[in-house]
Design a protein that fits this description.
single chain; 205 residues; Coagulation Factor XIII, Chain A, domain 1; 2 domains; 5-stranded mixed sheet
């Protein structure tokens, strides 16, 4: 009877231990460390085979900087000479208007009629920009994830910490019902890539 009880306890311990191991590596392993899943605003961040995923190291979650910067809509810069990563989070506030007079917006909007084609201006206020940029890019994505227009690039001749910017968009078609997303991206000096630093929605009804 005593032996059976010991065997039962050993079996229970084995089952619990196995479950713990399975649970700890449910998302797989990367170079000996368990992978963690990253969800931002209820959307799972996907990582490719060549990417370093979020990891659990010594009981702590370690996130890749690029994924963090994308989630925060921030700019990241790597200085290989001194092995230092820089993260910048500018404040970018956008609104849309069909008319501007003396840098004042007339009739800002956020809802359009489905099927309408519109010309409008993206009005952006930027501050707390602690790094130098050479251009910005504005794009519009439909509810199905398609690019609605050719992204508009605007050069920045003199990078400042705070400034206002007007970017006109022409012939934006709202053929789908749902949420359109206007994306405002920046390109840092010395970089070849744009990073999205702000998004704002337009509802098509």
């Amino acid at each position: 009877m005593k032996v059976q009880r010991i065997l039962a306890l050993m079996l229970m311990f084995f089952v619990l231990s196995t479950a713990a191991v399975v649970a700890s590596s449910i998302w797989g392993d990367f170079k000996g460390n368990n992978i963690a899943r990253l969800i931002v605003n209820e959307e799972t961040v996907e990582f490719g085979d060549s990417d370093v995923p979020p990891l659990i190291v010594d009981g702590k979650t370690v996130l890749p900087l690029r994924a963090v910067s994308d989630a925060l809509q921030a700019l990241v810069k790597w200085d290989n000479s001194n092995k230092t990563a820089y993260l910048y989070k500018p404040n970018v506030h956008m609104f849309f208007t069909t008319e501007v007079r003396k840098d004042s917006a007339i009739v800002p909007f956020g809802v359009v009629e489905r099927g309408k084609e519109a010309d409008f201006i993206v009005f952006a206020q930027v501050d707390n920009l602690k790094t130098s940029i050479n251009s910005v890019r504005v794009s519009v994505v439909s509810p199905s994830g398609k690019s609605v227009i050719t992204p508009v690039v605007k050069s920045i001749s003199e990078s400042k910490e705070s400034f206002w910017l007007k970017v006109p968009l022409y012939g934006v078609s709202f053929n789908e019902a749902g949420t359109y997303v206007v994306k405002f991206a920046m390109k840092q000096d010395g970089s070849n890539d744009y990073s999205v630093v702000s998004e704002k929605q337009i509802q098509s009804e």
